[in-house]
Design brief:
The complex is a heterodimer.
Chain A: H1 10-29, H2 39-60, H3 67-94, H4 99-126
Helix pairs in contact in A: 1-2, 1-4, 2-4, 3-4
Chain B: H1 2-23, H2 27-63, H3 73-105, H4 112-145
Helix pairs in contact in B: 1-2, 1-4, 2-3, 3-4
Classes of the chains: A mainly alpha, B mainly alpha.
């Protein structure tokens, strides 16, 4: 196992990032079908993206991390979550979501499709 | 509805039945059960969750219950929050633990300490998600009661 004390809180930060985009999604879906300001959802999305970037940076600085194992697992997980995100995106388009709302939800799905495989890869690699 | 019920039942069963039983088994027995159980869980749980959420949302759109003008809109939003919390826990803790257990079990000499640690995480988070499922049942009952 990689030394536990030297690992950044990737899982915890990832969960907060996911919670932020989930909150944005709840905010948008709770106002259907009326018009709603996108600003709160955009702010949550930006914060989520920042946490994703911070997570990558923090993990990149870990010495002796099992990167091969991480990428072995994360790449397949990413493929699976890309498919899932694509299905959800299709549901949005089928339900006539358009404009800024669709852009925010699409970017949220992108963060989701990146962050979950990252957490899966990290969990496997840390215990390798 | 069937997949939703299956999701609830499986989570509660894993957390409150399988978990305590697993804790009282010997280490070799735990490893054997885990080896056979976890691959199935990787297939079953994402499937029931995805179908439940997708079908449930489409049903809500068809029936108009997701509209902000719906009489029980507040309760619907409460259910969104509960499901959102479940999704974050499942995606952040449960599924990574599941995959990590599977990969550890495929090694020629799996580390029992790692499996035990990850199984505890899996069982506890299943139990928490099961309790949150009960919360969604309460919300649905409240909505159905009018």
């Amino acid at each position: 196992m990689t030394e536990e004390t030297s690992l950044p809180p990737v899982t915890q930060v990832g969960m907060v990032s996911l919670a932020l985009i989930v909150a944005g999604g709840i905010y948008l879906s709770s106002h259907i079908p009326g018009d709603v300001s996108l600003m709160p959802a955009v702010i949550l999305l930006v914060l989520s993206a920042l946490l994703l970037a911070l997570n990558f940076l923090a993990l990149a600085r870990v010495k002796n991390f099992r990167w091969k194992r991480f990428f072995d697992v994360a790449k397949w997980s990413f493929l699976a979550y890309l498919v899932i995100a694509g299905l959800i995106e299709y549901a949005f388009v089928r339900n006539d979501v358009t404009g800024g709302t669709l852009v925010v939800l699409t970017l949220s799905l992108l963060i989701f499709a990146i962050h979950v495989p990252m957490m899966i890869g990290f969990t496997v690699a840390r215990y390798d | 509805m069937a997949f939703g019920a299956a999701w609830t039942i499986v989570d509660l069963f894993m957390g409150f039945v399988i978990g305590p039983i697993l804790g009282r088994m010997s280490v070799p027995a735990r490893i054997e059960l885990t080896t056979k159980l976890m691959p199935k869980m990787v297939l079953i749980m994402p499937t029931v969750v995805s179908v439940t959420l997708a079908a449930g949302w489409q049903l809500g759109v068809e029936m108009g219950t997701v509209d902000s003008s719906y009489y029980h809109h507040g309760l619907l939003v409460a259910s969104y929050v509960v499901v959102g919390v479940m999704a974050v826990i499942a995606l952040g803790l449960l599924e990574p633990a599941n995959i990590a257990i599977l990969i550890e079990l495929k090694k020629p000499a799996p580390n029992p300490a790692v499996i035990e640690k990850l199984m505890k995480r899996f069982i506890y988070t299943s139990g928490i998600i099961g309790l949150l499922q009960v919360a969604t049942l309460l919300i649905m009952t409240r909505i159905a009661a009018g």
